[in-house]
Amino acid sequence: MTTTALASQAMATLGAHPRDAANEQTRRILGRLLAIVQDLSELRNQIGDGHGVVAAPAVEPRHGRLAVWAALAWSGFMLETLQTQTTCHNADQTK
User: What is the residue-wise DSSP string for 10-66?
Assistant: First the structure.
């Protein structure tokens, strides 16, 4: 399974997939978050030093930071979504 497929499955499981969005603007933003996962995966394959690559291409520090911040945007959103659902679930159980 690809990284993008895993991310899509995780988003669907949490009800945060673009198709689950309440409005068009949110759908587009969620779709772009999912596209970030795809782009980061492609970037990792292109410039990463895995898979027996002897010399990975140089990356400007600002592009490296951009990749990190992009990954944090998706990860942070997913963690907050999980936390919100967990909090709501726990609140429902105490009623």
Answer: HHHHTT-SGGG-SSHHHHHHHHHHHHHHHHHHHHHHHH-S-TT-SSPPP--HHHHHH
Q: What's the CA gap between 60 and 65, in Å, rounded? A: 9
CB 78 within 8 A of CB 16: yes
The predicted-structure confidence for 19-67, as pLDDT tens digits, reads as follows 999 999 999 999 999 999 999 999 998 887 776 667 767 889 999 999 9
* d(C-alpha 33, C-alpha 70), whole Å: 8
> Cβ distance 57 to 43 under 8 Å?
no
Find the radius of gyration of the CA atoms of the chain. 17
Nearest 10 degrees: CA dihedral of 81, 73, 31, 42?
-130
pTM above 0.85, yes or no: no
